[in-house]
Amino acid sequence: PRSSRLARLSRSVTFSSCHRLHSKSLSDEENLKLFGKCNNPNGHGHNYKVIVTVHGEIDPVSGMVMNLTDLKEYMQEAIMEPLDHKNLDKDVPYFAEVVSTTENVAVFIWENLQKLLPKGILYKVKVYETEQNVVVYKGEETILE
After folding, report:
1. If DSSP codes are grouped into helix, strand and coil, which group holds residue 127?
2. Are 17 and 43 in contact (CB under 8 A)?
3. Number of domains within the chain
4. Average pLDDT in the chain
5. CATH of the domain at 80
6. Which domain holds residue 88?
7. Catalytic residue among 38, 55, 103, 111
8. What's the predicted TM-score (pTM) here?
9. Residues 6+ apart with CB under 8 A from 125
C-alpha cells in the first residue's frame, strides 16, 4: 500500500482596482499623516496579482489535489467578479466600513474563497499590490478577550 502524498497547488490572477486609504475613525489630518499620497481624495489604482494556494492529498485516481478548472472558476467568482475594474471603497460593500488596505483585500479574498472551496483545502492567499508590496494571509485570527 502506497502512502498518500500531500501537495500544494497554486494559481494566480491579476485584477485592476482603485481605492483610497482612509479610515472613518480618523480625522482628515490624521488620515493624511498616516496614509500620505494614498489618501488622495480621488483615489489611486493598482494592478493586483493574487496567488491562491490550496493543499491536500494527491488523489490516486486523478493525480490532482484539485481540478485546476474548478479552482479557476472559484477564483473568477471570489476575486475577479467582485474586484476587477472596481473602486474598492465604492463598489465593494465589504470596504464600506473596512479600510481597503492590501491586508484587508487579502482577508476579503480568503473569506470569499472559503465559501466556495471544499472545507479545509485553502492554504494561502498572497496579494501583490506592487512588485515590492506583498501580503500573505493564511486565515489566522487572534481572539480578543
Report:
1. strand
2. no
3. 1
4. 95
5. 3.30.479.10
6. 6-137
7. 38
8. 0.93
9. 50, 51, 52, 53, 106, 109, 110, 113, 136, 137, 138
For residue range 37-89, what is the model confidence (pLDDT) as tens digits? 999 999 999 999 999 999 999 999 999 999 999 999 999 999 999 999 999 99
pLDDT the model gives residue 124: 98
Confirm whether 85 is a catalytic residue.
yes
d(CA 128, CA 38): 16
Eight-state DSSP code of residue 139: S
Q: How far is 25 from 8, CA to CA, in rounded Å?
A: 39
Q: How far apart are CA 127 and CA 76, in angstroms?
A: 15
**Residue in 19, 22, 46, 129 annotated catalytic:** 129
Determine the pLDDT at residue 4.
Answer: 87
Q: Which of 30, 44, 85, 145 is labelled catalytic?
A: 85
